[in-house]
Amino acid sequence: MADKRSALKQGQIDILEVLYKYRFGSRQLVADSLGIKAGSSLYEKLNVLIKHGLVAMRQEKRLKLLGVPAAYYLTSKGLKTLQALDGHAHITEATIKASYRDKVLSQAFVSHTLDVYGLTNALKHQYPDLKVYLRRDMSRFSYFPDSPPDAFLSLKLGDTPKRFFLDVIPDSLPRNILDRRISGYAEFFDEGGWEATNSELPSLLLVTEKGTTETRARRAASAAINRADIDDDLAVYTTTFGALKDAAASDAVWTSIEDADELLLLSDL
Q1: Could you tell me if 259 and 221 are in contact, meaning their C-beta atoms sit under 8 angstroms apart?
Q2: Cα(146)–Cα(148) distance, rounded to whole angstroms?
Q3: What is the superkingdom listed in this entry's lineage (predicted)?
């Protein structure tokens, strides 16, 4: 397959773009992003892209037996093919070089990436106008921290958009790592890292795997912010995987770390 738009159908380009954005995606998640069914048609399209070396698939046998879906990702050839198309100059050589590791990255990393994908899809269903930027998107801009969040969200309500840093917190994440992440954000904001945007500080959203994880995350976030003694108020809100995935557009699932009893809508944060 030549590296030219004429050699690719739009449906294939759409799949490549989605896999570029999220890095790893299951067939169901890709279908959800594209607004299509995850049936045989998408399966066949992915297999054609795999046959031409543009897409690869990861699926450990033991996880397949447990019902864990295969994870698809772009090969270096797929990234180069996408890069060669008009409007894709933002795909850098550094991104292509880093992609060589995708076939050997830990399953924990892949699973985390799929969790981020699924949870941001859930938010998009609740708020269709929500703009979602993943780490590859954020790498194009200088005003994000060196260790960026899992996702950056922008929800426009009226004239001023609400902005959020979103991190997905698995139950296995050690508290010291979460503490370091929150402290890093506080330090970044306190040192003026966000001033280039001329906008208010984004709120932090922590989506945790379980309710017990949420309790630990709230404590860690409160402690980190208190130690940082940041000049501006840094708002932190939490919810769980299950609450977010099951929520309808009208459901309030977020709570402030300052008040665990009041449930809030994303649009009210």
Answers
A1: no
A2: 6
A3: Bacteria
φ and ψ at residue 179, rounded to 5 degrees: -60, -45
Is there a shared CATH topology between the 5-105 domain and the 112-268 domain? no
**CATH number, span 112-268:** 3.40.91
Structure token pair of residue 96: 């292509």
- Nearest one of 238, 232, 196 to 217, comparing CA atoms: 238
- Quick one: three-class SS letters along the chain? CCCCHHHCCHHHHHHHHHHHHHCCECHHHHHHHHCCCCCHHHHHHHHHHHHCCCEEEECCHHHHHCCCCCEEEECHHHHHHHHCCCCCCCCCHHHHHHHHHCCCCCHHHHHHHHHHHHHHHHHHHHCCCCEEEEHHHHCCCCCCCCCCCCEEEEEEECCEEEEEEEEEECCCCCHHHHHHHHHHHHHHHHCCCCHHHCCCCCEEEEEECCHHHHHHHHHHHHHHHHHHCCCCCCCEEEEEHHHHHHCCCCCCCEEECCEEEEEECHHHC
Query: Considering the entire predicted model, what is its pTM?
Result: 0.91
> Rg of the chain's alpha carbons, rounded to an integer?
19
Q: For residues 151 and 193, what is the distance between their CA atoms, to the nearest angstrom? A: 17
**Which candidate, 260, 17, 261, places its Cα nearest to that of 134?**
17
For the chain, domain boundaries:
5-105, 112-268
Residue-wise pLDDT for 156-213, tens only, equals 988 889 999 999 999 998 888 888 898 899 889 888 889 989 888 999 999 999 999 9
